[in-house]
């Protein structure tokens, strides 16, 4: 199979779909360049192989055509510093401007195209727009995992114009290797820890994991829907009244499939959703009115940690408490620390999907787990078992 490692880039122009959707402040300074740094190995590989690089990305959500605040021009200088090379900029991603800039590009040079989303055809997956992009390069590389779940022109539709010259970049390769290891070839025991606020937003993932995991730890706000369904009193805790039957179904299915489903027994309850709240430890089945469960209690942290530490594959999605408020971050921190200990003992750990990534970064433990996904929505859809257009476009 053709890969970025065995492809001959000599004298080729590589059109690389990257995710440079970085946060900018009001002075157009980049406040977090993680996504740009992530793309460097792919860019360097093409240059080292004697090719030229044409980068295309979206930035923000422009509504009606070009808007200066969403111009990729703002990131050109920083990219040049990261690569230690001059980076050329094309004022448009298609048409004469882009075509002339691409044609003039020599091996070893880098060109950044203007925001793809200045053309509404990008998000519509317009075939003609994809063709216009495709004429710029000889080979297409998709390295934007964050948009792999979208069938946009540059992320998927363009593939048909490169039937023999389409590749994953290193970001995509890394994400796929990690998530495939977890979802398709997990060493056992395999434990998934699911948190977050609502069971309704996690239902597809929970159901898909049910056929794969040995242990399923459920924490965070969704705990209370389960406890209420089991006849508990949840006070003012977040609870989806219309999902009580669903919660019972999940418990029944887990039993039928032999999955060890673990819900926290004890929680930290608070009389307000704030750092200044009064707190107590309570049974998650017996929370007084006026109080709400906002974190797992120390005894539950130990219960969760025991299971996590005995696992060989771990997937963590969603904090088990309101980690944004320091008083209720301890449970999520204990989960993160248990994952780190398991990883030190040889487990493979994948952290992914929005808030658990923010949590592991907040605890400074991101480099002590096996893989932290950059994917967000794309990762979640992959775990749900959905086909991602950006992956299918290349894998077929
Ligand atoms: P989600 O986007 O569904 O993964 O939810 C993440 C959010 O769930 C975070 O902002 C957490 O603060 C929140 N969360 C976690 N535990 C609780 C809880 N016990 N009560 C309310 N919100 C929670």
Would you kindly provide a written description of the structure presented here, covering whatever features stand out?
The protein has helices at 34-48, 73-83, 95-103, 121-124, 127-134, 170-184, 203-209, 223-229, 244-257, 298-309, 330-344, 355-362, 377-383, 389-395, and strands spanning 13-17, 52-56, 87-90, 110-113, 139-142, 166-168, 190-194, 215-218, 233-234, 260-263, 266-270, 279-283, 286-287, 292-296, 313-317, 348-351, 371-372. By secondary structure, it is of the alpha/beta class. The chain has two domains: 13-173, 3-Layer(aba) Sandwich (Rossmann fold); 186-383, 3-Layer(aba) Sandwich (Rossmann fold), CATH 3.40.50. It has a six-stranded parallel sheet, sandwiched between helices. Strands 10-8-7-15-16-17 form a six-stranded parallel sheet, with helices on both faces. The radius of gyration is 23 Å and the shape is elongated. The two termini are 12 Å apart. Residues 195-198, 201, 220-221, 238, 293-294, 318-319, 321-322, 324, 354-355 line the site of adenosine monophosphate (AMP). The site of adenosine monophosphate has 17 residues, from strand 14.
């Amino acid at each position: 199979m053709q890969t970025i490692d065995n492809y001959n880039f000599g004298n080729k122009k590589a059109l690389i779909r990257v995710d440079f959707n970085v946060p900018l402040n009001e002075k157009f300074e980049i406040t977090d360049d993680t996504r740009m740094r992530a793309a460097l190995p792919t860019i360097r590989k093409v240059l080292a192989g004697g090719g030229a690089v044409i980068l295309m990305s979206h930035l923000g959500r422009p509504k009606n055509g070009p808007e200066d605040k969403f111009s990729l021009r703002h990131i050109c200088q920083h990219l040049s510093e990261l690569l230690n090379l001059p980076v050329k900029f094309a004022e448009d991603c298609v048409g004469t401007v882009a075509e002339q800039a691409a044609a003039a590009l020599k091996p070893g040079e880098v060109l950044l195209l203007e925001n793809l989303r200045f053309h509404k055809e990008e998000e519509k997956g317009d075939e003609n727009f994809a063709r216009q992009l495709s004429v710029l390069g000889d080979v297409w590389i998709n390295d934007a995992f964050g948009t792999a779940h979208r069938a946009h022109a540059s992320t998927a539709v363009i593939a048909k114009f490169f039937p023999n010259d389409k590749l994953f970049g290193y970001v995509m390769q890394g994400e796929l290797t990690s998530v495939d290891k977890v979802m398709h070839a997990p060493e056992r025991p395999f434990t998934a820890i699911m948190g977050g606020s609502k069971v309704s937003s996690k239902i597809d993932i929970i159901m898909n994991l049910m056929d794969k995991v040995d242990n399923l730890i459920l924490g965070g706000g969704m705990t209370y829907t389960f406890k209420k369904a089991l006849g508990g009193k949840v006070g003012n805790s977040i609870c989806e009244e219309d999902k009580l039957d669903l919660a019972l179904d999940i418990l029944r299915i887990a039993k039928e499939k032999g999955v060890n489903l673990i819900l926290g027994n004890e929680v930290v309850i608070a009389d307000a959703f704030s750092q200044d709240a009064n707190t107590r430890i309570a049974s998650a089945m017996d929370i007084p009115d006026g109080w709400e469960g906002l974190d797992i209690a120390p005894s539950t942290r130990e219960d969760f940690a025991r299971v996590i530490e005995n696992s060989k594959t771990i997937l963590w999605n969603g904090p088990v408490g309101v980690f944004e408020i320091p008083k209720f971050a301890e449970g999520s921190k204990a989960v993160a620390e248990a994952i780190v200990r398991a990883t030190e003992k040889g487990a493979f750990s994948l952290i992914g999907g929005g808030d658990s990534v923010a949590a592991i970064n907040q605890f400074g433990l991101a480099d002590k787990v096996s893989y932290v996904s950059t994917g967000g929505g794309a990762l979640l859809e992959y775990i749900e078992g959905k086909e991602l257009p950006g992956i299918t476009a290349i894998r077929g």
